[in-house]
Amino acid sequence: MNISGHINSFDDFRKLIAKTTPGSWNFFRGESRDFYSLIPKIGRLVKDRGASTEGKIHLDLRMPADMYGERHALQEFKKAARALVAVQPTNTWEWMALAQHHGLPTRLLDWSVNPLIALYFAVAETYNEIDLKRDNLISPKYNGGAAFYIAHTRYGLSEIDEESDPYEAKTCFFSAPVVTARIRSQSGVFSIQKNPHKPLHEQIYKKEHIHKYHIPFELRAVLAKELRLLGVNHAFVYPDLDGLAKYIQEKLTE
To answer: Which of 19, 189, 215, 251 has its CA 20 to 30 A from that of 49?
Structure first.
């Protein structure tokens, strides 16, 4: 995906956001590595069985999720998680949202209506030269940058039939079911992709578009500090005891 611009200061970020219209037509996402694509985790981990491999040598280094598939992974999560959640999700959409927020590979991508939250996910992770060298093993040309996305939609958030099958749903943005406090605090919405192996920007409507903005390596810590001054920290984004403890640890190590 091409870069639409660069964020070289917090003022650049503020001016960029000032051009958007508040409401349910613009959604924001942050990625800590700018070489990542808008493909959900399940699409990166599980082989696309519809893709032709004729005449190709395929070295499969994918995760074991491929052995039992996307639906089975969610079913296994549901069986084990029922005893661990106080409020039970009532349909597959809610279970998928809950699983996504706890790291299970799904065909969802996390977005927010709050640009500060998206920026937090782009720059809050502590990232140093050792991390950069590790990432260069995967992407040799990577220079340590993060990415900030703005999705401009034509139809806003789609109305979801909660009784429908999300695996058959069309590509769209929809309001995240508030099944955890994290979703509420992160002003979360989701995109779901009909084809989880194909980047999101290649599946949206023609008059919709997604812009990607590059954040340089040396600006990560600067923007993270600005966010902390505005009260956007780990305890705010993750409103539980784990989030609070990590936030206090971050203050101790600064």
So the answer is: 189
